[in-house]
Amino acid sequence: MDVVIVESPAKAKTINKYLGNDYKVIASYGHIRDLPPKDGSVRPDEDFEMSWEVGKPSQKRLNEIAQAVKSADGLVLATDPDREGEAISWHVLEVLRQKKAIGKKPVSRVVFNAITKKAVLDAMANPRTIDEPLVDAYLARRALDYLVGFTLSPVLWRKLPGARSAGRVQSVALRLVCDREAEIERFKPEEYWSIIAHLATERGDDFEARLTAFDGEKIQRLTIGNGDIAGTIKSMLESAAFVIESVEAKPTRRNPGPPFTTSTLQQAASAKLGFSASRTMQVAQRLYEGIDLGGETVGLITYMRTDGVQMAPEAVEGARKAIGADFGARYVPEKPRYYSTKAKNAQEAHEAVRPTDFTRSPKDVKRFLDPDQFRLYDLIWKRGIASQMASAELERTTVEIDASGAGKTAKLRASGQVVKFDGFLAAYVDHRDDSKSDSDDEKDDARLPEMAAREKAERKKIDATQHFTEPPPRYSEASLIKKMEELGIGRPSTYAATLQTLQDRDYIVVDKRKLLPEAKGRLVTAFLHNFFERYVEYDFTADLEEKLDQISAGDLAWKDVLREFWKEFSSHVEGTKELRVADVLDALNEELAPLVFPPREDGTEPRACPRCGNGQLSLKLGKFGAFVGCSNYPECGYTRQLGTSFSADSTEGEMADGPKDLGVDPETGEPITLRTGRFGPYVQRGEGKEAKRSSLPKGWQVADIDLEKALRLLSLPREVGTHPESGKPILAGLGRYGPFLQHDGMYANLDSIEDVFEVGLNRAVTVIAEKKEKGARGRAKPAALATLGEHPTLGGEITVRDGRFGPYVNTGKINATLPKGKDPASVTLEEAIQLLNERAEKTGAKGGAKKKASTTKKSANGKAEKNGEAKTAKSSTKKTATKSKSAPKKKVEADDSAGVPWDAD
């Protein structure tokens, strides 16, 4: 019996059915090793040696795999057919060799693009060895991501407190969002007018024509710049005679687009289904790994992480047969269609995303799928089938019209099109490009009435309409992914994870499906743009991706790429050591002026302090990040958050002119107010300690909050209904970690705040059931709100955190709850040390960090000191307080999906 290794248990279950009892299929649950998140995991001084660590969840699985392999006849590595899949196989093989579980047993590598019986059996019949160049490309990517993240992030902490991390791809994606926001801020609207004539043919059929020329001058979009000019033209047309100069009917053809790639699937799912990129990939993963179709488990789509646009010959033939059966012979083109990608650095080794069997139509499998699975499969099937269908045949008609009167002439044009044969449009109509504004759309898809040259047209009405140019639209997830693909930034497996990382780190927020940069994200981007510009350049990142592709192809040595990169990068980082924080703030004040110093309604100087009148406002850096403060500190203590415009007398808990009154709760009669606190805006019902409060969820803007929205928030949690099995209520609410469902002590995440208000009982039961199937995960340690310094006697870093039972301070394994009413933001190092000492004495704990051996070093005054020498509590505290002013040690969050088990179930 052979052991077969795949990534996920769902995939293992499906494949085991195909292979039978001669094989034992085991899941690795994604990556089994990763670089430890600490210094020294990649060592440039040792020719980029890398240390790998097996995570605790993977240790048990690896022991099970090793035990199974020892008693097996051979090992088959059947992970996904991409760089990450090759790396998982390599990691598993390396660990098994270390455990001496392989011996002389045969090891083979197989890949399949779809989980169907034929694809799996064909792959098993054609094994190969591990693709070393693919593994080298993976190693190079992981090393690059680690070196950028673990080298650049500490620079951010020292020079820009409050920033969490930087990454090779993450930072460039963030720059795209921030650059678009800066473009919008700089945008100055221009006035322009359009002239539309409402006309009728001699037979009385109405149509519209747009002005294209006036008195010999061609009219462009912005030509008519004010109402006076528009009025002159309108007056002339209102007295003019109209004659049709020419009518041209021109047949055209419209060809279908290729089947989906990862990027285009995410774009279409966003535009047509409203799915986020991560949601699209989660649903696609289930369709790929296998669905039980009434006793037969089968993968419904091919591998969903690809930038290839071709389909296998047998799939093309299957699509053509399905087209003939479902749509008719006329819809089958004479020859099959072949596609090539235009994306920069695309790798076309894999098929496009397509159904594994085109005869398996969406309506045939609908009863076996949940709503999300059905909608996505329907989209993939229709796009795949359309890609092999006949072209749509259209007739585009253009009518040129002359107008004359009052000694002046004008030309107008009417256009329209008629679908003569729908072709592929019968299956799939492409989603509209959401980066295009409504004003850019031309109304040329209407059918024009019959008319002929030299025919007169009757004037009905002349419209002169004022417009203003609009700024470029903010990116959506879909349009940002499209832009990243065009620039060659990132790869199919990283798009969704990169966007999720930016949201998790509060660098961007999604508002009505548009990506807005948070103040923290703007600061990080401005800092990197000013002091590490080369490393957030689009071409530089794309060139690195191209080099990784060359490594995959065996054309470049991976360590040569790392050496070339590290030599320049490390030198650049070294040069920032002399960079003063004052220089950083000066650069950020200038680049982020629209964000930091927004224009005032009264037209006064934005940088003048509104409280003292003499000071200048400037960015300041504190332990909780950047804020705006007066240069006359400490005489003037005026401060405000970034992106707000608090008044001179504003205090915490108030808007610019105090709490904003939204109205009265119709049930309780209590006032509902909108306020801003230390942790952002919130709504409140009533006054005093018993007042109910609710923070604004991500994506909700202060300007949009009214009484109705406030009441909805304050009404949470909402009872969805009673669980049909347990008889206990299901609640939907908004918590510290976002929207959730709660039932019988268990919580399950919801995708958005809208789901909290709209989710029904059936969907809620399904979400809770899925959560139970996955199993409850261990509670993660809350993120640090602040880092205060090291404990002088217990050792270890002291942090302030907010846990399930309230805020506390922590060092190592010792936690000490803050006194009731104590603001976690105001905790000092001395107070934290005292609380931790009391807790340690009470519990007998010894701390969480070992003391370093005694080493001699120089103190600030130049005298030699020894670590480990006994000191009084007072001097220890003083010394630690001094140390805390320098950059605190933090856990680095390296780039971009580093170590993400893409294929974990």
Please summarize what this structure is:
Helix content is about 35%, strand content about 20%. The protein is built from 24 helices and 36 strands.
Description:
The protein is α+β, with helices and mostly antiparallel strands and 905 residues long. The chain contains 24 helices and 36 strands. A hairpin with a 2-residue loop joins strand 15 and strand 16.
CATH architecture of the largest domain: Orthogonal Bundle
Q: What's the number of helices?
A: 24
Percent range for helical residues? 25-40%
Please give the CATH class of the largest domain. Mainly Alpha
The CATH topology of the largest domain is: Topoisomerase I, domain 2
Unreliable segments (pLDDT under 50, ≥5 consecutive)?
433-442, 644-657, 848-905
List keywords for this structure.
Topoisomerase I, domain 3; 905 residues; Rossmann fold; six-stranded antiparallel barrel; Topoisomerase I, domain 2; 24 helices
SSE map:
Blueprint: E1 2-6, H1 9-19, E2 23-27, E3 33-34, E4 42-43, E5 49-50, E6 53-54, H2 56-70, E7 74-77, H3 83-98, E8 107-109, H4 117-124, H5 132-159, H6 170-186, E9 191-200, E10 206-214, E11 217-218, H7 227-238, E12 241-254, H8 262-273, H9 277-289, E13 291-292, E14 297-298, H10 313-326, H11 362-365, H12 371-386, E15 392-405, E16 408-421, E17 456-468, H13 477-487, H14 495-504, E18 508-511, E19 514-517, H15 519-531, H16 538-552, H17 558-575, H18 581-591, H19 593-596, E20 617-622, E21 625-630, E22 639-640, E23 660-664, E24 671-677, E25 680-685, E26 692-695, H20 707-714, E27 718-722, E28 729-735, E29 738-743, E30 746-749, H21 753-758, H22 761-774, E31 784-790, E32 797-803, E33 806-811, E34 814-817, H23 829-843, E35 856-858, E36 864-866, H24 873-883
Parallel strand pairs: 1-2, 1-7, 7-8
Antiparallel strand pairs: 3-6, 4-5, 9-10, 9-17, 10-11, 10-16, 12-15, 12-17, 13-14, 15-16, 18-19, 20-21, 21-22, 23-24, 24-25, 25-26, 27-28, 28-29, 29-30, 31-32, 32-33, 33-34, 35-36
